[in-house]
Amino acid sequence: MTTSAHQETIPVGNGVEYDFREFRSTQKEVLNKEPCQHDHDMNRGANADCGERECDPPREAGTLKGLPAACEDSFPTALSMRLTMVRRPDRLPDEGLQEVLRGKLRVLEADSGEVTALFSELSARLLSINGEEDVIVVTFKTFEEIWKFSTYYTMGFLGQCMENLLLDQEFWLNSLEQDDPGIEVSIQEETLNLMYKGILMQEGSFFGSCSANQMFDSSTSGSDLYLEQGDIGLFEPPFMGSGWTVQSLVDGARGTKPKPSLEPVEPFHQWFLKSCPENILVGSGKLAYDFPFQFAVGACVTVVEYDACGPDELSFECGDIIQAMGLLVSCFEWFMGKHEGTGDIGLVKTCLVKPTDSLCESTDTFLNKEDRLLLNNDEHTKAETIALLNKTSKSDIGTIYKLDLIELQDPPRETNQNGPYNVSLSKREELKSKIDLILSELKGTSSLSPQEKEPCPDNNPSEPGEGDGAPCFIVHPEEDSPSPDGFISLLTFLNCRDYKEEFRTLYDHSLQFRHSLFSGHADDEELVSYLGVARETARKKRLFWAQSRVCFLLGKMCARMSKYSQARVYFEETLSVAREHFTDMLLLISIYTNLAIIYLMQKNTEKYFTVSERIAALLMGIPNYICSTEKEPDIFKYILKKAILAHNKAAEARACFLLAKLYSKLEQRQNAVPFIERLQILTEELPGACAVIPSHCYLALGKLYGEKYLPHLAMSSVRRASLNPCATLTDCLCGIGMVLENAPRLYGVGKQGVSVPTQVAPYLSRALSLATGDEDHALRHAISVCVSQLFQKHGMLGRAVQHMHALIERGPGMSLTDTTDMLIALAWLHICNRQHHQALDVLDSLLSSTPENCTTPREGVIYNLRAIALHHSGDVKQASHSYQEAIDICEEFDFRHNWAVALANFGLLCLKARAKGLAETSLIQSVEFFSELEDEDHEVNFIAVLLELGQFYIHEGQLEKGKIYYEWALLIALKLNHSECQLKATRHLCHLYRMVFPDEAQCIIYNEHMLNLVRKTGDKSQEGEILETISLLYLSLGTERAFRSALDYTKRSLGIFIDLRKKEKEAYAWLQAGKIYHILRQNELVDLYVQVAQDSGLSTGDTHFILKLLEVAGDVFFNGSREREKAVSFYRDRALPIAVKTGNMRSQLRLSNKLAELLMQLRLYGGRRHQELGPQAKRALDRSYQRKVLGDHLNERVAFHRLATLYHCLGQYEMAEHYFLKALSLCPSPLQFDEETLYYVRVYQTLGDIIFYDLKDPYDAAGYYHLALAAAMDLGNKRSQLKLCTRLATIYHNFLVNRELSLFFYQKARTFATELNVRRINLSPDQNFRSTSQYKK
């Protein structure tokens, strides 16, 4: 793979150019322990080979792609697919969408299970994914895989499969109003061809086409084998130094040649020819006849005189005009013609005619009046689609109360809230008037009497007429055989020259005539005996057509009983009986197909080929023929073989169509798939040959793919069919049904299933635009409701409202109940979209239309929604009244579910009004009602109420109660197996155990459960954040085992952040891993991880982020117990200069303080480091002064204290005393916290020690000790008082010589010593004591 298209160096904001390639290589070096790394490197190698293969030298003449036969390794083994986001119809790349696509590919690099499953469906094998290059690399093991893959690529399925895999559900909704964005897949077709040839060479023999006229040394006859350019043969590569071997498919002759000039036939032809039995494949006579048209219609003129050899042929004189019946195909020996002079119809040899001016190439591969539907009964009617959509979008909006959790929901996703659905006041009035008009009209129609509403029944229903079916003849046993006159009715029925519809069961392969035409026979033997007598009777009475048909039936019965020789005799007699031309062409083709199958089974290939040629001519001229035997595919394969060998694509398309129809009739639908695919490709290639509806071909494929559980291919086929500009409403409705069936299967791997996939949105939108008839009211209503629900589910509430408004403008055309439910749903949409006044308009209209003296449960639903709208519009009083109305209706009808919801809503309203007692009572009563319900429909609302009640108790400080309700909600969600509810409950518990009631172990358990839930949703970003949280929780446990677990979770989050290109998160994850390695004392990895973290941060180019990252990197060593000196370079050499350059005063102060503290603790006071201490401390003091302007006294006090400590350590005691007193002067007065008092104790004690021990001034030292003692007494710190009283006793006893005070402080010290179990108090001054000893470690 190459990276020339990407910027190799990037600016980082501080004038440094950073080499991104070096950074990525460093990342790979660090993560080389990941299991996928070996595969990734191998795939890169495969791509490199693929890239080199594109630069191969031109092929050598006379060889397969110019490569020696032994050089199989020289063929490429990997194929690169480049994915590009484009906007149709111009197919222009979109860089913004392309970056989104790259992000998806990066995520799949680490978790490629779904991609592997997709390419398995596409008959390819995934090697690697390169998100940076937008490339997916695949390979193939067999030529069949290449054939299927290339077929899907040619049909345009690859891009659509990628869209279904890579694009979010919201994409399909957003694409409705965009320029139809999509993914375009491009491959190196030359590379694919080389892979195809390489696999064929490995597999051995294959079918190839001669690329030049050439001679082969014959191995079967004395003369050489001559093949012309384009001739197809079976080639075998050289073996053990021998030459190439070829077998001609015309006569089976073989020949050899060292280096033949050939090209493999295309993959479909390869598969088909290899699947043909040898007796069909080899030996077919002349491939094509000398005729100027390949696929012609019109009239031709005879060139010789010809006498018919049978009743199926035409006799003619030289110069007679013959009109081609159907199609005249040059690769077949015969065609079906009509004599212009006599009007007779029969078979004519192609070589005996020449074209007239009216003869021309046909642009249509199908016959007039031909049924072009490949599958039967596969169209969805409007009624079926309406029922399906109503079932899919079924809602309880009109019966179940809604829980008021609007404030907890995410806001609408539309960024532009000034669209057409944010209506003005005038629009609101207009909409309200329209709703009132609709409701009044429906109310008037609903008040009609039953007699007016119900249509009058039809007193004369149509009944099928008697005797409409075919006659039925009774079969008598042989001993009771009737006289010849008893067969008259049967023979009269059969003795008809022309075809009758009643004959269909006679010719059909199912042999239904055994029971539909005949009755009274015990088994097939009795029926055969009966037909044998009927045959003899017809022969004696010279009823030739009856005799022919009876012989045909006898032949079919004998074939059924596996008496093939006897069956052949009967079929041949059927042909010989006729004395005049056949006009029942369906009988003729049925005879020929049965005969051909018997000839093939008896290995009489000569007669098989002869009869098959006639069958081909009849099939080119007879529309809607009747399948007469289940083995007919063997005959049709011969026809397709002839078309392939003659390179006649139009005939090939016709043969594929016939084979697909045949397999459909035989209920072998999956066998029809390759031929439908090939038919579709040929239909698009042939100019003007699109008379077959393309959408039907794709719909047929979609249905077959769905039956084979290939959802990606099924969805792609349906999309090509239904979204075609020429698609009809029926096509769209069929597509809707298939999408609803197959789309949920796309999310069976790694994702949570969806009930209504958004992939159906384009089909619904297209169907809505086509459903313009007055009879389509119900269809428009079902589609609009379904589309609106899709938008609502994905947070696009404005567009959901827009569709409902459009439905109202068109007029719903539904019943009063359905219209009321639709308007209730519209009101709920307005509430969710924060349009409470519009919702109130709709709800008030509904309330005004309800009967005054009759209360209904639906009225309670309206009151509940009205209360929610009033609640969020600020009218709490009116909202409480509406809730009370809703509760009263529930109590009247004893509907406990709605009662519980209304009580919960009322409780939430009371919480907003800060009536906590009433809120608690209502919520608890709601929980009691919910817990008494037995059905499962209420449990989602029950969980939400439990969480709200638990949160209420948490806020009130009743943690145990809150935890109980949280865990109750989680248990119900687990029982329900509802992932979303489990996620909500688990989040509440995680927050409880982390922020409110810290418990790391419990928090880890719930976070790991939440991690499993998030994985099912496929949200990688959230998964990475949870992994990061779990890592921090393990780190806080403080054990080595916990540290290693934290490291594992950190690395997992790091992989996700790398895939998502979240550079800041990635940098912090690298740093976190380095920190854990530092704790684990694995020093060799710490520097590496910290360095990669810096590189990742530099690649963002964000100076402020880099500053924070460098400081955190220094903190890794600063907060540790080892190698603390490494923090100096991060603070002083890297972070501090950036902070100065950017003017970040807060960071400068913090860094200066850390540097001063670090340098002091390291005891590096000599040389250059000694000179650094003062400037760093003074810098901190300067920054603190600047911060003081902003009111930050604490930082100034810290700076004074640190500077005092520095001078103390340096022995400059007067300066130390000065700055300590400055720090004390900044303390707040009066003191607010014990920590501040303790600070007074320690600082005054330190000052006393400095004055007493270092400056030798006991008088001033006693003053500081007195101040420290006063603070210690205020704090109640006995240990500090003991120490200070001892110091004061020592001073007064030894230096100030005040016996009274000395005794007083000594007695106080003894009292504290007794309480603290201190055995001895020494009043002698310690001559070795140093005041700086407190700073020593």
UniProtKB/TrEMBL annotation:
- All residue ranges annotated as the SH3 domain in the record: 295-358
- Which region ranges are annotated with the description Disordered? 446-476
SUPFAM superfamilies found in the cross-reference section: HCP-like, SH3-domain, TPR-like
Provide the residue intervals of the TPR repeats.
1197-1230
According to the lineage, what is the superkingdom? Eukaryota
Key words, A-Z: SH3 domain, TPR repeat
UniProt key word Ubl conjugation:
no
Record's protein name: SH3 domain-containing protein
Originating organism: Aldrovandia affinis
